Amino acid sequence: MTVALYALLCLIWGSTWLAIKVGLTGVPPFLGAGLRFLLSALLVGLVLAVRRRPIRLTRSDRICVLSLGLLVFWLDYAAVYWAEMRISSGLTAILFSTMPLMTSLLSAYGMRSETLSRGKVIGILVGVAGTALLFWPHDRVGVAEALGMLAALFGSFCAAINLVVVKKHGRDADPFVLNFFGMGIGAACLLAMSAASERGAAVVWSRSNVFAIVYLAVLGSVVAFSIYYYLIKRMDATVVSLTTLIIPIVALVLGRLVLDETVTPLAVVGIATILAGVAITTRR
After folding, report:
1. Considering the entire predicted model, what is its pTM?
2. Residue ranges per domain, the chain?
């Protein structure tokens, strides 16, 4: 049961990068992301209503809610959706997999909750080298692609900050409560960004982009996070974190099969180097 859920989590989160790409066809990025989390917040709120448990937010809960809402469901996903307008879904997923490296640095030097071992230092350096290879100039990388890569890394950085904050303040928090308020804040910010910057953008609804948004809201957000919290209580956290290595592979395969996305040979070397750095950093 646990192994099956682990595999399902990797498949769902790996497929979300492709679903984001499909959902962006005809829909501006901030509008698409905002509608996704608006629907997700409504679904999580329905779960909370069925549970009929009183909602009380402690000071730590409020810190986690603000962190999730502003850093993850707003800035992180705004950057990721914006990046996928300019680079492939697989490359976005690969760049986002640098999050464990950033988390290690933030934990060691920001919160001082962890120490940097020799393995972590080596892993971080290898990951940085891989990122440099991805940015290595060649004919296929223009300003738009470079900005897309930077946006993906910025999203990863926001997610890493949130992980450190929630790890410190969210030990006793109810994940459904945090996600409900966090998704609500993120949806409001994203829709406000859309109203301010995408007012003149044309929106063309189709069966594929509507299905993608619903898929991301239901499976990519509500179901995936439920499985994640189930696994984190029953498996070693390090084992669960290894999904970070599997998800980009799923994203690359699906991007190649469905959207016929290609990756340059030098980017392949950079991808392998980044994954090696993440593996070194997250191993026991």
Report:
1. 0.83
2. 2-282
